[in-house]
Specification:
This protein is mostly beta strands. The protein has one domain: OB fold (Dihydrolipoamide Acetyltransferase, E2P). Helices cover 13% and strands 37% of the residues. It has a five-stranded mixed beta barrel. Strand 1 and strand 2 form a beta hairpin. It is globular and about 40 Å long.
Length: 97
């Protein structure tokens, strides 16, 4: 990992820690998932991969991914220096959280 990647990771992990709830706008839709512009920092590249998009708790087909322009609420599950992405999950909120 380069020092630039490490700096990016430190900054993103502080601003969007794993477990944080975020909101964002779907900007691109692909069979593998959607790219989201986070409301708190639209320059951060965030992704919800199809296996992490389960709004009803069940897997969905690519046709059921949200359309471009839809706002999502999600949880941060990871940060990857490859492509500098924040990975998100959309799932029912656990009442115990």
């Amino acid at each position: 990992m380069t020092s630039s990647d490490a700096d990016w990771l430190d900054g993103v992990a502080e601003a969007f820690p794993v477990g944080a709830r975020v909101r964002g706008l779907v900007q691109a839709r692909h069979p593998f998932g959607v790219f989201v512009a986070l409301d708190d920092d639209p320059d951060i590249r965030a992704i919800v991969e199809i296996n992490n998009y389960r709004p009803d708790g069940e897997p969905v087909s690519p046709e059921r991914l949200p359309e471009i322009g839809v706002h999502l609420q999600a949880v941060v599950i990871d940060h990857t220096t490859f492509n500098r992405q924040v990975r998100l999950r959309v799932a029912p909120i656990d009442a115990s959280e």
